[in-house]
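Lab meeting minutes (informal)
Scribe: AK
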Amino acid sequence: MNWDVMLNERLWINIAIIAGVTIVSYLILQAVLRIITNRLRKMSKGSKSGFVTIAAEMLSRTSHLLLIALSLLIALKVVELPDRWESAMSHGWFIALAFQIALWMDTAVRLWMESLTRDGKARNPVTTTIIGIMIRIVIWTMMLLSILANLGVDITAMVASLGVGGIAIALAVQTLLSDIFASLSIGVDKPFEIGDFVVFGSVAGNIEHIGLKTTRIRALSGEQIVCANADLLKQILHNYKRMNTRRIVFKFGITYNTPSDKVREVSALVRRIIDGLDNAKFDRAHFLAFDDSQLTFEVVYIMQVSDYNAYMDTQQEINLQLLDGIREMGVQFAFPTRSVEFIGGSFPELTVAGVPKEKPAANQEAERALPNA
């Protein structure tokens, strides 16, 4: 052991200076971070933006080990060091800052993913997870490559190898990737979400699960329908969950022998009925056409709610009141009729099954005389 080095007074003074500056720097950095974090948290309470909340949480999760490393690097700047130590310190500064920035960004991504599930809205959890994982992979990959480049490692060949490998993998699993990107498209564009009632082709049901490759739909008849995400996006899809109002058109007919003044009163009757109902807004009611066996009316009204059961209850009430009102007016609903006109000749003899044929009068008189003979 070299006791001359150990007993060097200058060495111990430098060590004491480094230790003192490290402790003071650490306490100052920690205090500054605490003050900034508390102010950001106070600002987030009165702000509707989630950025301030995420920023506060990011600073609160700063690594204490990295703070100590930064404090030590600051302390080493105070004393005189050899040139090779200066070079090592410059790399140390970059590595510590790169790790801390990567940790902050990773925390921001995780907080963003948590905020998407905290607002009570139904979302695509698979898409959110995929996007979060991809962003975090990019963050840590960029951090690693930047550290290697700072240390003097040639990363050009490494980046080229990653690119070639990525292309080879993409070609091998292109069908799976098409469904994955379709899932990402569903998550970003949000044509439908879990719980929505959709209709496409011959399929009608509620979205039950949006997966990495497929979407599962619970049909009205009870079975589960599984559809590939890429194929699903190629369909023309009707999303009834997002329907705010419902336009209803229905027709009915009255008989041809109805007087014209009564026909005019029918439209007014329909308007009074619809105006008296909740969640229904009258649009129009017109005598539309002269159809076979009836005078046809067309009625249009707007349901102010999208619930199908509410619409059916309203339509039933309209039908019942219309039935009573038409009868009170002395008007009859039309039903299919057919008139046959017989010209010339004589009617053919009609027989009905189970009913005895009427006998001629001469035969009836002979039958009455037989008992007396």
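Next up, CB showed the second protein from the same session:
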Amino acid sequence: MGMFIKAIEYVYAKNKITNNYLQKRFPDYDFSKFEEKVGIKNRYWVDENETAFDLAVKACEKLFQNHDRQEIDYILYCTQSPEYFLPTTACILQNKLGIKKSIGALDFNLGCSGYTYGVSLAKGLISSGQVKNVLLVTAETYSKYLHPNDRSNRSIFGDAAAATLISYSNEEENIGNFLFGTDGSGYDKLIVKNGCSRFRYDPDSPEIIYGTDNSYTDNHLYMNGPDVFNFTNEVVPNFTKEIVELNNLSLDNIDQFVFHQANAYMLNFMRKRLKISSDNFFIDLEDGGNTVSCTIPIALKKYSELINKETTIIIVGFGVGLSWSGGLIKIKSKL
């Protein structure tokens, strides 16, 4: 018994935010250098009344243009932009999509490692014989958490949703072994402090200045960029080697590496540490930016359009939590 990624579809939010637009908002910053270093030219943000759920519905409907929604046995919904604290957004999604009621549905709150966690969870559900078709949905609207004066984060993050169909197969296994990592001591390196149970939303929260041309309040997203960068480069390269070894392969056996698309500078730094050719290391940030849990499925969809044979891929997610995970997959053609 095996399983495989059968299809992926994605959508961006409709409002295109260019570097030229941001240049007007932050005239003292050189966005041409930013584009060259970080690799982001455009990102897309939702309207004020549009949510991650709205994007998720669009991505799923796009997927169901070619696949039967009534074959879905389980919905895994990864987001840090839920519709409500409760109920579970996955349950609302089941109803909105008109999927049968005899399914499982759950949310899980992970960011940049969310997709790789989701693929592994889907594998567990299928390999245990409980289900045959899992709908893995990732959806994020970090733009809603960004302070208007936070130039760094407004430059990086975009809104998107992706829908992945993972299915049972009578043929060989196309989803390999996965590994995981967690360091909760770094929980405050990427955080929205106010608005939940520990600290309520505070309309009078003071503005905090950090870095250069950046500010936020505790109601907004804060990211300690240098610490996140250091964590990533300390952990991810060796972790990637461990994933490859766990699957009884060597780095030379891997056709393509698809990491969370955080920023091009960080990705190339890790690529060089791993001594991987740029031809075998997919980077796709120019149009869309960092869409958190959606970057890997979007990259996989785009990469799949470039191949016509079976390809062995290592996928690795890392970020908020601090959390990281990754594993091996194989795809044969356009997803």
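CB comment: The chain has a mean pLDDT of 95.
No objections, moving on.
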